[in-house]
Amino acid sequence: MASLSASFSASSNNTTRFSVQINPTRSSSSPVRLICSASAHNQVSTNESSCCLKGLKTFTCGVLAVWAVTAASPVIAANQRLPPLSTDPDRCERAFTGNTIGQANGVYDKPIDLRFCDYTNEKTKMKGKSLAAALMSGAKFDGADMSEVVMSKAFAAGASFKGTNFTNAVLDRVNFEKADLQGAIFKNTVLSGSTFDNANLKDAVFEDTIIGYIDLQKLCNNTTISPDGRAELGCR
């Protein structure tokens, strides 16, 4: 039975090299070496010493391609997902004007970066605004009146919405991961496609909430929802 050895090496240009050497049992046969290289951008190249190892080449380089992508730094992945914080000194004021096009699909004429802004107890300036695809992580909306807002595809992970009024709002496909929504009011609110992973929903109100069956099942898995909230949602 032939033996196989493998080794990894990395260079300063973020390229990873994976070498496999097969050592036949017969002393008369020379070792066969297969080399693949890949970068974090999933660019794979091969250099094989024998054309008869096409199957092994495919398997080896396939494994390497997967490894190169999954081993990428999580910090880099996060930076690719979210743009750098806007340097516009008036960026927090954009919540009071919103954007104007493509509300349903999260398309906007100008990006809205509200990250780390503070709108605590804002009662008038955000009502009915379109905040499609807004970046809201780390922002505070505690006690704010956000009734009738449109937040399609907004990114609100880690934001605070304690006691926020979302009555008649459209919050479809919003990421509320780890957001604090304690006491938030979702009365007649559209929540289709929105995610609430590890969010705090204690004492949140879900009266006449509009949500699909699959999304409802996921939402009901949140253990912070009060018994009254679960009854309003129809959780089983």
Give the strand order of the largest sheet, numbering strands 1, 2, ... along the chain.
1-2-3-4
Uncertain spans, ≥5 residues at pLDDT below 50? 1-6, 25-29, 34-80
Please state the overall shape, judged from the principal axes of the Cα atoms: globular
Order of helices and strands: EEEEHHHH
CATH homologous superfamily caption of one domain:
E3 ubiquitin-protein ligase SopA
If you average the pLDDT, what whole number results? 76
Q: Please report the total strand number as a whole number.
A: 4
Q: N-to-C terminal Cα separation, in Å?
A: 58 Å
Taken as a percent bin, the fraction of beta residues is: 5-15%
Indicate the CATH class of one domain.
Mainly Beta
Describe this structure in words.
It comes from Kalanchoe fedtschenkoi. InterPro entries: 5peptide_repeat (IPR001646). This is Thylakoid lumenal 17.4 kDa protein, chloroplastic. Keywords: Repeat. It holds the Pfam family Pentapeptide. With 236 residues, this protein is an alpha+beta fold. The protein has a domain at 111-235: E3 ubiquitin-protein ligase SopA (Pectate Lyase C-like). It is 17% helix and 13% strand. The chain contains 4 helices and 4 strands, in the order ββββαααα. It has helices spanning 54-70, 74-81, 213-220, 227-233, and strands at 3-10, 15-23, 32-39, 44-48. The chain has a 4-stranded antiparallel sheet, covered by helices on one side. A hairpin with a 4-residue loop joins strand 3 and strand 4. The longest helix has 17 residues, at 54-70. The protein is globular and about 45 Å long. Residues 1-6, 25-29 and 34-80 have low confidence and may be disordered.
